Amino acid sequence: PDGAGEVVYVAAQCLEAEATGTEAHPFVHISDALAYAKDGATILVAAGEYKENLDISRPVTIVGSSDPKDPDSAALSLQAPEETAIRVTGTDAVLIGVRVEGARGTAVRLEGGSLRLEGSAIEDTVSGSAGLPAVAVLARASGTLVLQSTWVTGTSGTGVLVSGASGSFAGVEVRDSIGVGIALETALGEVTVTDTTVSGSVGAGVRVSSSRVVSDGSTVTGTTADGDVNADGILSLEGTGVAGASLGPSDLTVRGSVLSGNGRTGILCGGGTRTVVLQDNTISDNGLPGTSVYKY
After folding, report:
1. Alpha-carbon distance 254 to 56, whole Å?
2. Burial environment of residue 47 by CB neighbours within 10 A (0 to 12, 13 to 18, 19 or more)
3. What pLDDT, in 10s, does the model give residues 274-294?
4. Three-class HEC string of 54-99
5. How does residue 232 score in pLDDT terms, banded at 50, 70 and 90?
6. CA 144 – CA 167 distance, rounded (Å)
7. What are phi and psi of 242, to 5 degrees?
């Protein structure tokens, strides 16, 4: 790519004995490229299956697709043998065209720093060894997560969790989570959810807890209940900490969005929701008769 600085090449089908990271002699493993690359490098990864975990602790860009707008073209297939397929710690990273399949515990984990995940697909993340529900994409520790044109599908738990971090979503699809689709907990600053679709979640499609969120042109549909878990399109509430101490109010703005076919309400706002702004939305055909928006 133009302006990419150092470029390091990876291709799973090449000979490891000859690998130097050049286009003629690429590395066989992405982790070898990460160990070799200088700060600011771009790692170009050829299509193929890579059975490894990635630990990113320096600023790099990993590219597995020529089309950052189309997750279906993500041809870098990462199949991690250990839990937490990709870990980004205290640095600024960009992942484009990465497909993470069948990760255990967490597929992508951001601890501080920033991560832009674009044109990628995170598929079928399952619970880890502790038996806790999976989280496909997790941002915490004051990190900054940017999701663009990315699919998060079939998670055995929460699709995306932003906790004590900042985030933005644009052109994202979160489908068929056996848990909350997108969970925003004590998020830093204003989280924007734009042109994003959340469908088929067990529980809330989007759960806002002690956070400030703006949803613009998005769709939340098809949430279902499971036992004591309710099925709202968007659930906004006040988070609580130790001994029930308040973690602060939530503020919710929803514009030009569609909330339909959800198991209970389109939008449910708890008493800890400080402000609710609704503009030009379609809220219909949700499960609780006669209720589109409910605040208690």
Report:
1. 35
2. middle
3. 999 999 999 999 998 656 677
4. EEECCCEEEECCCCCCCHHHCCEEECCCCCCCEEEECCEEEEECEE
5. very high
6. 6
7. -60, 135
pLDDT at residue 263, as a whole number? 93
Q: Which amino acid is at 291?
A: T
Report the candidate in 217, 203, 218 with the shortest Cα–Cα distance to residue 161. Answer: 203
pTM, two decimal places: 0.96
Q: Are 219 and 199 in contact (CB under 8 A)?
A: yes
Return the closest-CA partner of residue 160 out of 204, 195, 130, 119: 204
DSSP codes joined into one string, the chain: -TT--SEEEE-TTS-GGG--SSSSS-BSSHHHHHHHPPTTEEEEE-SEEE---EEE-S-EEEE--S-TT-GGG--EEE--SSS-SEEEESSEEEEESEEEES-BSEEEEEESSEEEEES-EEE--B--TT-PPEEEEEEETT-EEEEES-EEE--SEEEEEEESSEEEEES-EEE--SS-SEEEES-SSEEEEES-EEES-BS-SEEEES-EEEEES-EEE--B-BTTB---SEEEE--B-GGG-B---EEEEEES-EEES-SS-SEEE-TTEEEEEEES-EEES-SSTT-SEEE-
153: nearest Cα among 71, 267, 55, 75: 71
